[in-house]
Amino acid sequence: MTAKNQPQRARITPEEALAYHLEPRPGKFDVVPSTPMVTQRDLSLAYSPGVAVPVQAIAANPETAYDYTTKGNLIAVVSNGTSILGLGNLGALASKPVMEGKAVLFKRFADVNAIDIELDTEDPDEIIQAVRLMGPTFGGINLEDIKAPECFIIEQRLKELMDIPVFHDDQHGTAVICAAGLINALHLSGKRIEDVRIVLNGAGAAGIACLELVKAMGASPENCIMCDTKGVIWQGRTEGMNQWKSAHAVVTEARTLAEALVGADVFLGVSAKGAVTQAMVETMAPNPVIFAMANPDPEITPEEAHEVRPDAIVATGRSDYPNQVNNVLGFPYLFRGALDIHARAINDEMKIACARALAELAREDVPDEVAVAYGRKLVFGRDYIIPTPFDPRLIHVVPPAVARAGMDTGVARRPIIDMEGYVQSLRQRMDPTASILQGIHARARRAQARMIFAEGDDPRVLRAAVAWQRSGLGRALVVGREADVAEKLSAAGLADALQEIEVVNAANSPHQSRYHEALYARLQRKGVDREDAGKLANRDRHVFAALMLAHGHGDGLVTGVTRKSAHVLEQIGQVFDVRPQDGAVGVTAILHKGRIVLMGDTLVHEWPEAEDLALIATRGAQVARALGMDPRVAFLSFSTFGYPVSERATKMAQAPRVLDAMGADFEYEGEMTVDVALNPEQAARYPFSRLTGPANVLVVPARHSASISVKLMQEMAGATVIGPILTGVPKPIQICSTTSTVNDILNMAAIAAGGVGLAR
Q: What is the pLDDT of residue 318?
């Protein structure tokens, strides 16, 4: 990787963070009904009188609450805000954004519904009583950001009082992921957990839980030394002690962290930046394992550790280093497995099963889609001992392991009989669209493109350009006037960003004459003289930005926010060949309810004929593959396989024959109605169809029908729309819609950076 495209470290500004939580509506989630609520009959079934029936059923048999209510897939995320992240005791209300975030993570990674509950008290007894009384509502309790030692008291007491899982993630979540990484690190080092000397620094909730779990996995208690801010916790020490620390006191002559680390095989840190020095690392045993998990900055960085000990295996809590110890790898899947067996608790055996499943997953061959998402090939070894959070296999690998452990240890109310069927149901329950977007952005981050944002007079574009720069996706080049850009950035609360982005003004560009001559050479036989070419280059931002791209003064171009796409395409066409006859096609991605379909042509071809439709299908298949999908193309009409007969449907039936002659290497079929294309039950009526599953690339008869379909899905169904993605062009160019949000612009820029639409 060259210096030019070396990934930059992401930077999130306060303004961005506040905007994210404010828009499009305050907060991070909505409550959405899962059953119809439209007619009077629906209302009668949902509430009175129909609701009386499940009420009576649950009263007669409480276990049926898992069948007739959301209890079996509902978690309470409970906090009093006394230990918020690294911010300290800021109170219950201030903790709400964090708890909402936790709830969203439950849903995103394991399809677990979660509700945040903030309790305005620091009295452990009051918290215990409040949570206990809420027991009938939830299938599990996730305690969060409650300070020690109260968190130990609260968790232990609730476990005794409640018959549903109670889990303090700050303790056990970190412990589980730490244990998973340790299993693999020791495997690579050729050491056994029973033999190694372990030193832990940080005797808080997470540290104590880490040590307890590794001991439960086989670590010898006499080989485990715990340290806090006052040094080693040794038998006989009285200063700064409590019952939880005392449980891990050992007989040792070591009194400081430095002394404890001499000859140690493993360091586990949940303490503070800089707690470990290079001199300390030098004294550790061969092939040391160093988990420096302090956030936001580790006890020692991987670079510092490797400088003195190249043989070290290092993990941190940060995403910008290999081997991130990230709780999101644990708690969603622990609860998923526990909920699915209606567990009474999450015990040590279930935690260990989770850790071992994660460790085993990291040793398996990593699928291509994961490599695509992270922009690099991941291979089990010293820099990859823990799976990545966006590995799609987590959902169907970890929960079954947790569920089996729960069943084996007797905490399951409803054991899973068909485990293979359960695994398959987990495979199908997750939304694939998030991983697709993650993959797009990962490829962009790896490319480190100099992205040209052509419309520097629009605040949305400026915010997107700043986000591109600060997210570490590459360099942001903004076309505009310096004073105007500065004014608009200041109005958006981003005045300091002016020094980070590069503003390019056509009026004073050093490449002006070169651009003018190039444009004149291209347009002189189209009635454009040299003076006109100069004016066009200087006055039209889309033309100027396209000239920048054509001359290699940027790596990609995103525009279209301020003008209709037809006009923008026409102006870009002054510089590049983007006409229908040039092979250009617009493909729009529609993301809705866990499904993604691509639709074309939504931008270029007004009235495509059969040959054009075949090209649109080919471009759509290329985009599908670039997004990690196996393309299945359906040519849509109001008729299906010749009935009813229509002149306008004929070309949709001819297009597959064009692809036959071309020898296309993807699935395609048509003509057919949209329900036959997308609904397996309808498709089953046509067993001769060549499609092996629901179509994911839809080719429609004309641009107007494509536009109508996309906008209808967007407005009526609330679908997420990405595109149109301009394909078949010689350079990375993407055109946004005039209704684009900042995130929409960023997505299109990422698509451009990833080269998704380039002609092949």
A: 86
What does each C-alpha distance from 698 to 454, 627, 645 come to in angstroms? 31, 15, 21
| 201 within some domain | yes
How far apart are the C-alpha atoms of 382 and 402, rounded to whole Å?
A: 26
Q: Is residue 179 part of a domain?
A: yes
422 is catalytic: no
* Residue of 314, 265, 312 whose CA lies nearest to 293: 314
Low-confidence ranges of the chain (pLDDT < 70): 1-13, 367-377, 430-435, 759-760
Q: Tell me, yes or no, if the pTM score tops 0.85.
A: no
176 contacts: CB under 8 Å, gap ≥ 6:
213, 329, 330, 334, 351, 354, 355, 358
Cβ atoms within 10 A of the Cβ of 424, count? 12
Distance separating alpha carbons of residues 224 and 237, to the nearest angstrom: 16
| pLDDT value, residue 233 | 95
- Read off the CATH number of the domain in which 590 is found: 3.40.50.10750
First to last CA, the chain: 24
- Pick the catalytic residue from 4, 20, 28, 47: 47
- At residue 582, the pLDDT reads 81
749 found inside a domain: no
The three-class DSSP label of residue 128 is helix
Give residue 364's pLDDT.
86
Dist CA 51 CA 65 (whole Å) = 13
According to the model, what pLDDT value does residue 373 have?
Answer: 56
pLDDT of 1? 39
255/249 Cα distance (integer angstroms): 12
Q: 589 in helix, strand or coil?
A: strand
What whole-number distance in Å separates Cα of residue 228 and Cα of residue 668? Answer: 64
Phi-psi region of 303 (alpha: psi -120 to 50; beta: other; left: phi over 0): alpha
In Å, how far are 482, 486, 546, 573 from 506, measured between CA atoms? 11, 16, 12, 19
Closest CA to 188 of 352, 45, 313: 313
Q: Which of 71, 102, 351, 731 is catalytic?
A: 102
User: Can you state the percent helix, strand and coil of the chain, rounding each to 5?
Assistant: 45, 15, 40
Angle in degrees, 0-180, between the axes of helices 169-189 and 348-363, rounded to the nearest 10: 40
Nearest to 738 by CA among 479, 562, 478, 520: 562
Last-in-domain residue among 304, 326, 348: 326
Domain count, the chain: 2
Identify the CA nearest to 358 among candidates 383, 334, 336, 339.
Answer: 334
Which residue, 275, 303, 326, sits at the end of a domain?
326
Structure tokens at 286: 């061969």
* Nearest residue to 743 via CA among 540, 468, 469: 468
Assign residue 209 the CATH number of its domain: 3.40.50.720
Residue 347 to residue 323: CA distance in whole angstroms: 26
Q: Rounded to 10 degrees, what is the CA torsion of 714, 718, 719, 723?
A: 40
Residue 129 forms part of a structural domain: no
| CA 173/CA 333 separation, integer angstroms | 11
102 is catalytic: yes
Q: Please answer whether residues 88 and 100 qualify as being in contact, where contact means their C-beta atoms are separated by less than 8 angstroms.
A: no
* Closest of 165, 112, 124 to residue 142, by C-alpha: 165
Catalogue the E-assigned strands of 209-324. 224-228, 231-232, 266-269, 289-292, 313-316
Q: Helix or strand or coil: residue 198?
A: strand
Provide Rg for the chain, Cα atoms. 29
CB 226 within 8 A of CB 241: no
Cis geometry, peptide bond prior to residue 296 (ω within 30 degrees of 0): yes
Instruction: State which residues form the domain around 634.
Output: 580-728
Amino acid identity at 422: Y
CA separation (Å) from 395 to 110, 222, 331, 431? 6, 37, 12, 11
